[in-house]
Amino acid sequence: MAQITLENVRKVFGKVVANRDITLTIHDREFMVLLGPSGCGKTTLLRGIAGLERIDGGRILIGGQDVSDLPPRKRHIAMVFQSYAVFPHLTVYDNVAFGLRMQRVPAAEERARVQAAAELLHIADLLQRYPAQISGGQRQRVAVARAIAVQAQVLLMDEPLSNLDALLRLEMRAELKRLLKELKATVVYVTHDQVEALSLGDRIAVMRDGAIVQCDSPLTVYDQPATPFVGRFIGNPPMNLLLADVRPAPGGAEAVVGGVAFPAPGTAQGGKLLLGIRAENIQVHATPVAGALPGKVLVVEPLGSHNLLTVQVDEARVKAHTHADAAFEPGQPVWLAFPADKIRWLEPEE
User: Fold this and answer.
1) Are residues 214 and 295 part of one domain?
2) Which of 84, 140, 196, 225 stands 20 to 30 A from 176 (CA)?
3) Do 141 and 264 belong to one domain?
């Protein structure tokens, strides 16, 4: 069992609180992604789990054992860093075998484990080369192979694909997903790339200012963000968030946006709410439609499979998808219809 339990984990650097009493359970063999902008505390939390940073409060348990005060070598973890961290003077074989030699693994077992890891990462034909003789993507594969060869209970990955170009990152992302399903390891993966998070994780913990603001499945985090920050951070383009005035209405309350009234959630009584809707869920019409918001097209961006429109609606700018062959032009009046089941209501942030 390699369940990781964080209990009120706190880390402070001077006057900066990097981790604010974080409590989180990462289940055995789960792929957990820590997602957030730079400076949100995700790498600090990962380093705390690894033992590379000493936490200032709380506890960290791996497999039920309190490891808060244990050095990294006694935590049964392996780590892949953002920089490849391969040894330039060692061959690929020796790089992959490095951790095994630290564990004093017998030579025959070392050879078997290195070969198995190399075959999983498709670098078996590179074992006698040096890092300078292989590409950046291949060096990253070497770093991952070194981590999995030690057969640790927990695999920690700190933005391992961020130094690769876009096409190679796409390829490595698919490879990683396949590999980690085969390994059945408990994985904690840090990234600021939401596409990586959505495509790889069993769950995503979205972090902001040292705290976890939402932790759920990728689909739930994308479709039902807990806060406006999550709605804006997840998705490309970000979720549209329109300020609505809530007022009493027969049978309940209504939220008014741009002169159009929408049924407000049952708990709403008055004040302000944010109407959230994804670009792909908006229906764009060239003629007036009852209950649709009037607007004017500002920008049309052809993206191959679809077009992305930027539409001015009162003081807000709304992003909406249309079919690639839809004929909309800048300056054209349009009407935006929001299906009721695609609307998400959020409390405005202070």
Assistant:
1) no
2) 225
3) no
Same-domain pairing of 46 and 109: yes
Pairing status of strand 271-277 against strand 344-346: antiparallel
CA distance 7 to 17: 16
Can you say whether the dihedral through the CA atoms of 128, 131, 132, 133 is positive or negative?
positive
- Can you give the pTM of this predicted structure? 0.88
226/252 same-domain check: no
- In this structure, what CATH number is given to the domain that contains residue 274? 2.40.50.140
d(CA 283, CA 301): 17
H and E: helices and strands count for the chain: 8, 20
Contact 276, 343 (CB under 8 A): yes
Residue 244's domain comprises 240-346
State whether 218 and 251 are in the same domain.
no
The helix (run of H) or strand (run of E) holding residue 322 is strand 316-323
Strand pairing of 240-249 and 271-277? antiparallel
CA distance 308 to 330: 12
Residue pair 276/238 in contact (Cβ under 8 Å)? The answer is no
Q: Can you spell out the DSSP letters for 293-317?
A: EEEEEEEEEE-SSEEEEEEEETTEE
Residue 263 has pLDDT above 70, yes or no: yes
- Run of H or E including 188: strand 186-191
Query: pLDDT digit string (tens) for 304-333?
Result: 999 999 999 988 999 999 999 988 999 999
Domain end among 215, 233, 251: 233
Hey, is 208 helix, strand or coil? strand
Can the peptide bond before residue 237 be classed as cis, meaning omega within 30 degrees of 0?
A: yes
3-state secondary structure of 4: strand
Looking at 213, 233, 253, the residue that finishes a domain is: 233
Q: Both 94 and 71 in a single domain?
A: yes
